[in-house]
Amino acid sequence: MSWEWSVIWEYFPKLLDGAWLTLELVAISGILGLVIAVPMALMRASDNMAIKALPYAYIFFFRGTPLLVQIFLIYYGASQFDAVKASALWPILREPYWCAIIAFSLNTAAYGAEMIRGAIQAVPKGEIEAAMALGMSKFQTIKRIILRRAAGIVLPGYSNEVLLMLKSSALASTITLLDLTGMARTIIARTYTPLEMFFAAGMVYLAMAAVLILCFRLLERRLNKYQFAKRPI
Amino acid sequence: MDLHGYGDLLLSGLWVTIKLALVSLFFGLIIGLAGATAKLSSSRVARGIATAYTTIVRGIPELLLVLTLYFGGSQLLMYFASMFGYDEYIDVGQFSAAVAALAIAFGAYSTEVFRMAMQDVPKGQWESAQAMGMTPVQTFFRIILPQVWRLAIPGLGNLFQVLLKDTALVSVVGLNELMRQASVGAATTKSPFDFYLAAAILYLLLTVGTTLVTGLLERMSKPELRGGRA
User: Fold this and answer.
1) Could you confirm whether domain B7-222 is CATH 1.10.3720.10?
2) Is the confidence at residue B223, as pLDDT, over 80?
3) Of these four, A40, A195, B14, B187, which has the most CB atoms within 10 Å of its CB?
4) In chain B, which residues have their Cβ closer than 8 Å to the Cβ of A205?
């Protein structure tokens, strides 16, 4: 087996370009996903069946089907309807970049919502009662007490979800985007060195995952300060 | 939803998906058990190899793994074969490359599930088996494994769902599973939404079915839940 280190060095800057797109996709859809997930989780934690039903169906569909199907449904599926093609949304749904972001956001929101719901329900009851006793309205309690406590509780699990999303972002390469995996495939088509290029791409993914893990550790230290506090005595 | 008579195509793809998932599950479980044993062994080399394996595989995308083994599998296998003096060309088929990739990914995650389950079996069980005169291998298969199984089922059920969904990735390299057949149908009939929605519904049925089976296995593995006498 011939192993060409020189190919890796030659094309490494290109791979890093791809890695940048990967990070961009993960960051944008991570934030959008969180924006969708929080209200979904709040609705899902409700006692009212009618309110619970929509997030339940949403989470069921997006967690029960492969992400690849979701991406293809949005990217290829939307073009089946002339009404969509004629609408104002078409310039967005025509772009693989936005389709990937929509699919990733909706997907991560489904997983995130389920986790956040768990965290919301794990907020100690006494704290909510205390907030009510202080005269806070329901909205104030959610904003000041429940979501803040839930953020600390959900963080360790949520960092896992972000790492999984980093890995699933490789699927963007299936709709012609030149993310890290897409870039590696393009280079391989030119040089035919699959093992070297995929190895290099894998190492870049590992490095990105390591950096993300570090960031979440720091964030956890901030949000869950009480767990890291030194005992006074 | 109009499938223009291509429903059979989807069903044939569904069958390949199921086969793919079950064969990968089988090999993935073996890798996971071996990995967990290595992680808990006293040999530092075994622990190191197992840790490197789980860290690397869990850190890179499954799609990358599928692509690597599909486009580089022959090269890799021929390299290892040449170490043993075999220099002929070896072709890695689509199905085997797909199974290898999925089993390696499943194995890395199930290693952790099995390791945690094995640690939950009290140490006294090993000691009493030894006191009864069993060899370590006998102890593992007669005493430890049946209990590990029970503790690992919920975790393994989740992983199998992930595996089922990951089988869709194999369509990228052209294996005729559900996702690939949906793409074929979508391309010929020009109604992609219908075909991908049909595929999504079939995947949903598979994951729901898996949930039911896992629940059943879980109940079967816990005698106290079967309503037996206390």
Assistant:
1) yes
2) no
3) A40
4) 59-61, 64
Instruction: Check if the beta carbon of residue B163 is closer than 8 Å to that of residue B24.
Output: yes
Whether the pLDDT of residue B52 is over 60: the answer is yes
| CA angle centred on B192, ends A78 and A178, rounded to 5° | 70
Nearest to B193 among A60, A80, A169 (CB): A80
Inter-chain touch B203–A195, beta carbons under 8 Å: no
Domain ranges of chain B: 7-222
CB atoms within 10 A of CB A175: 19
Show the tokens assigned to B170: 């194999």
User: Is A233 within a domain?
Assistant: no
- The pLDDT tens digits of the residues spanning B156-210 come to 999 999 999 999 999 998 889 999 999 999 988 888 999 999 999 999 999 999 9
Q: Is residue A224 part of a domain?
A: yes
* CATH number of the domain within which A29 lies: 1.10.3720.10
Q: What is the 3-state secondary structure (H, E, C) of chain B?
A: CCCCCCHHHHHHHHHHHHHHHHHHHHHHHHHHHHHHHHHHCCCHHHHHHHHHHHHHHHHCCHHHHHHHHHHHHHHHHHHHHHHCCCCCCCCCCHHHHHHHHHHHHHHHHHHHHHHHHHHHCCHHHHHHHHHCCCCHHHHHHHHHHHHHHHHHHHHHHHHHHHHHHHHHHHHHHCCCCHHHHHHHHHHHHCCHHHHHHHHHHHHHHHHHHHHHHHHHHHHHCCHHHCCCCC
Q: Compute CA A1 distance to the chain's CA centroid, rounded to the nearest angstrom.
A: 38
Averaged pLDDT of chain A: 91
Q: Which residue among A68, A77, A202 places its CB closest to the CB of B179?
A: A68
- The answer to whether the CB atoms of B197 and A79 lie below 8 A apart is no
Residue matched to tokens 């089907």: A65
Residue in chain A closest to B163 (alpha carbons) equals A66
Contact A68 B171 (CB under 8 A): yes
B214, pLDDT greater than 60: yes
Q: Based on the structure, what is the number of domains in chain A?
A: 1
Chain B residues closer than 8 Å to A68 by CB: 168-169, 171, 179
Give chain A's count of helices (H) and strands (E): 12, 0
Record the tokens describing residue A79, joined without a space: 């073009």
- Do A173 and B192 make contact, defined as CB atoms within 8 angstroms? no
Q: Which residues on A lie below 8 Å from B90 (Cβ)?
A: none
Q: pTM of this prediction?
A: 0.89
